[in-house]
Amino acid sequence: MTAVALVPAAGQGVRLGLGTPKALVPVHGTPLLTHAVRGLLDAGCVRHVVVAAPPAEVAATAALLAEAGLAADVVPGGADRTDSVRRALRHALTVVPDARVVLVHDAARAFTPPEVIQAVVAAVEAGAPAVIPVLPMADTVKQVDGGGTVTATPDRAALRVVQTPQGFDVEVLTRAYAAAGDSATDDAGLVEKLGVPVATVMGHPCAMKITTPFDLAIAEAVLCAKRNP
Ligand SMILES: Nc1ccn([C@@H]2O[C@H](COP(=O)(O)OP(=O)(O)OP(=O)(O)O)[C@@H](O)[C@H]2O)c(=O)n1
Ligand SMILES: C[C@](O)(CO)[C@H](O)COP(=O)(O)O
Fold first, then answer.
1. What is the ipTM of this complex?
2. Which of 43, 125, 161, 198 could join 130 via S-S bond, C-beta 3.0 to 4.6 A?
């Protein structure tokens, strides 16, 4: 097993609106972060996990993962996702210096199926410098101006919705973060700026990012259906 997984989990969950850091919000009594870390470790291709937690919750996060029997290092996250990943990457390079494959996986995508994790790792191990799971667009997409008036209808056949885990050759991700000026909406975005090709594999609807109360309700229902098929 060559992959190290970085789990940005330091967000506040403003859009979820529960007043609790999102990664600590329970689904069926278990925090999202615990579901996410268990999913990574159970996939069978991840050897070490580093979680970036809200700075005030580092000790509590380490305790809840330990109680769940999950081995993971917990470091303080940063002001935005990019900063949280940067901190987790720095720690991972120190504790697992021989890692070749690095995954970056949102705690908020807590129910990502193992086959997606395995496909990303396999593609990087096969030689791709950067790999992201994607889904085709189900809806027509419009581009709008600042006033909300439509300015274009991009060809949706050429568009994809992007999920995590995103997988990288360790040297490529390290270089991307060293060159990063501003924050990016995803890690592959930083790699693209280096001119390095980013490959895609098929994502999965269950890898959805739990962002809103509606998403949380969907996640509860999906887990319920899995446990009571
Ligand atoms: N400073 C931050 C902000 C976000 N994240 C993490 O990045 C992932 C994707 O972010 P998002 O879903 O937007 O989470 P939040 O930032 O918590 O959500 P919101 O924007 O609604 O506050 C989440 O696992 C989140 O915990 C992080 O580690 N550090
Ligand atoms: C990385 C990501 O999950 C890919 O879709 C997404 O870009 C994170 O965005 P957010 O604004 O931090 O939720």
1. 0.97
2. 198
